[in-house]
Amino acid sequence: MYLSFIFIIITSVFWGQNNINHITNPDYLNKYSFIFPSDFLWGTATAAHQVEGNCNNNNWSNWETSIPSHDYSFLHSKQPAGSACEHWTRYPEDIKLMKELGVNAYRFSVEWSKIEPQPGEFNQNALTHYSTVIDSLISKGITPMITLHHFTNPIWFEELGAFEREENIQYFVRFSQKIFEEYSDRVIYWCTINEPAVYTVQGYFTGIFPPEKQNIRLAAKVLKNLIRAHVDVYFSLKKLPNGEKSQIGFVKNINQFKPWRKWHPVDQMVVWFSNHFYNDAILHCLMTDEYTLKVPFLSGENGIIPNASQSFDFIGLNYYSHNFLKFQLLRTPHIDVAFPKKEIKTDMPYTMYAQGFYDAIESVSKLKKPIIITENGVADKYDNFRSKWISDYIKQMAIALENGIDIRGYFYWSLLDNYEWVESYHMKFGLYEVDFKTQQRKLREGSKTYQKIIKSGIGNN
């Protein structure tokens, strides 16, 4: 139970040679000289359940209308995603917005429950829909990147135990193969599983994501099975036509945990455990094939995941911020997140910390594979500091590039205000503001900084 207090507060925070173009001393980049490869991917990202609407046959749609099993008072109240941004039908309009923005890439997920509503039964209308989306993107000069799993499962898969059971991995592999066979003639970039640590901890330890379980041993097993699933999908896709030319990656979010009081032994212990489970154990497995949790009561899940270190062509990095953790014996929860006064607080319970972005890039660079920033963005309802976020974080990415780290692209989260999981519609990450009553989209003023960077960085007119 004590460890659950730790994670409830911690994880509720989240969810060849090239021609070179130079951006010299633009004001919106803080007088810093940026250098980007001419083929750099400038993109934005979404996830199906968060934007499409009417995803009514998956674990999240069930959960959103169920009676809460736990106390959500520290979050916003549960709310159905409903029609979301209606991106399923409004995608032509949204692709025009991407073109207006100037991006040359778009990361999106395909909704498993729409494509395979029953085991082994594939919905041709859904397959055709995503095919049309892909063609529409390409026709506008926008490179598609597909995410195969972004938190949601079909209800039938959830009822089988989802990733709690190793034998269920075969169903995700089958689905992934089907999608790859359909689209790999046009899609080069693929993400297998998005943020396995978030999916695991929130769903199986804190219980604030479906299926609302609170079992640290089960969480350790699910995390291991997610890595196994990624490995199995990677090698199965590589064997298919177009497999060798495709770039298939694994998306890891990094959140650095730090002690609020360096001298406090419990603060230090909590930080070590959080960094180990959330970050280090996964990166270690991707480097060595060893899934090793250095906690005695979790060691039963330790073992080798063969070829994990060879199972990705790039590493997708999602990064937002860091957190200072503070132990408080006489209050509940016993672990609080503290915020330095000098750091700008975002609408989410974390601060703007661009230096941490560089540190995260450096940490995943140890995997010695190309890096694509698959998510980075800010919840800022009143658009007070979105421009500063974009310029400061991209500046850190540029410094990493100049220091020789191989970064191939940057995807801002998100294209649109959307359904932000347990935070529902309260968090405004969108480059485009969405009026959910009228579905009208409007480019935020702060987002124009990204537009300017893209235009200067890749030479768009």
What features would you highlight for this structure?
disordered N terminus, 15 strands, globular, alpha/beta, eight-stranded parallel beta barrel, 14 helices, TIM Barrel, two-stranded antiparallel sheet, single chain
Number of separate helices: 14
Count of domain modules: 1
Uncertain segments: 1-28
The end-to-end span amounts to 57 Å
CATH superfamily: Glycosidases
CATH class term: Alpha Beta
User: How much of the polypeptide forms β-strand, as a percent range?
Assistant: 15-25%
Structural class: alpha/beta
Order of helices and strands: HEEEHHHEHHEHHEHHEHEEEEHEHEEEH
Which architecture does the CATH hierarchy give at level 2? Alpha-Beta Barrel
The whole-number mean of residue pLDDT values reads: 90
Helix content: 25-40%
Strand order of the largest sheet: 3-4-5-6-7-10-12-13
Number-wise, the strands total 15
Q: What's the Cα radius of gyration? A: 21 Å
Tell the overall outline.
Answer: globular
Largest sheet: 8 strands, parallel, barrel
Notes on the structure:
By secondary structure, the chain is an alpha/beta fold. It is built from 14 helices and 15 strands. It has one domain: Alpha-Beta Barrel (TIM Barrel), CATH 3.20.20. It has helices at 2-11, 48-51, 59-64, 87-101, 112-115, 124-139, 155-159, 169-183, 196-204, 216-238, 265-288, 354-364, 386-402, 448-458, and strands at 20-23, 34-37, 41-45, 105-109, 143-149, 189-194, 247-259, 290-291, 303-304, 314-327, 335-338, 371-376, 407-413, 432-435, 440-443. The strands form 4 sheets. An 8-stranded parallel beta barrel has the order 3-4-5-6-7-10-12-13, surrounded by 6 helices. Strands 1-2 form a two-stranded antiparallel sheet. Helix 4 runs parallel beside helix 6 (124-139) and helix 9 packs antiparallel against helix 10 (216-238). The termini are far apart.
